[in-house]
């Protein structure tokens, strides 16, 4: 049987690490989306204030099975 998947892009944040930022995005998405399949980290960056790191950010593409 053929399947179709939808992909959305999210940005997760953490004050501790990029790994926790990516996990936050996936965990939040799993609260409202069913059948998550793949999460791909596409970019990492940091939010800074006065030269200090305030947050790690991970841009994540998440795919899930498309149901109509």
Description:
InterPro entries: Dodecin (IPR009923), Dodecin-like (IPR025543), Dodecin-like_sf (IPR036694). This is Transporter. It holds the Pfam family Dodecin. The chain has 68 residues and is of the alpha+beta class. The protein has a single domain (5-65), classed as Flavin-binding protein dodecin (Dodecin subunit-like), CATH 3.30.1660.10. It contains 1 helix and 3 strands, in the order βαββ. It has one helix at residues 18-32, and strands at residues 5-14, 36-49, 52-65. The chain has a 3-stranded antiparallel sheet with strand order 1-3-2. The longest helix is centred in the middle third of the chain and has 15 residues, at 18-32. It is elongated, with a radius of gyration of 14 Å. The model has no long low-confidence stretch (mean pLDDT 94).
Keywords:
single chain, 68 residues, alpha+beta, Dodecin subunit-like, 1 helix, elongated, Transporter, Dodecin-like_sf, Dodecin-like, Dodecin
Terminal CA distance reads: 16 Å
**Helix-and-strand structural type:** alpha+beta
Percentage of residues in helical conformation: 10-25%
Average pLDDT figure: 94
Order of helices and strands: EHEE
Q: For the largest beta sheet, what order do the strands appear in spatially?
A: 1-3-2
By CATH, the architecture is named 2-Layer Sandwich
| Oligomerization status of the protein chains | single chain
CATH homolog superfamily: Flavin-binding protein dodecin
Specify the overall morphology: elongated
Uncertain stretches: none
Largest sheet: 3 strands, antiparallel
Strand-residue proportion? over 45%
Counting H and I runs of at least 4 residues, what is the number of helices? 1
CATH topology: Dodecin subunit-like
The overall strand count is 3
Query: How many structural domains in the coordinates?
Result: 1
- The top-level CATH class is Alpha Beta
- Based on CA atoms alone, the radius of gyration comes out at 14 Å
Protein name: Transporter
InterPro entries: Dodecin, Dodecin-like, Dodecin-like_sf
Pfam family, one: Dodecin
């Amino acid at each position: 049987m053929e399947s179709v998947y939808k992909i959305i892009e999210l940005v997760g944040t953490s004050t501790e690490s990029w790994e926790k930022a990516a996990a936050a995005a996936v965990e939040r998405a799993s609260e409202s989306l069913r059948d998550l399949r793949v999460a791909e980290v596409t970019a990492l960056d940091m939010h800074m204030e006065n030269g200090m790191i305030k947050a790690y950010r991970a841009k994540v593409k998440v795919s899930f099975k498309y149901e109509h």
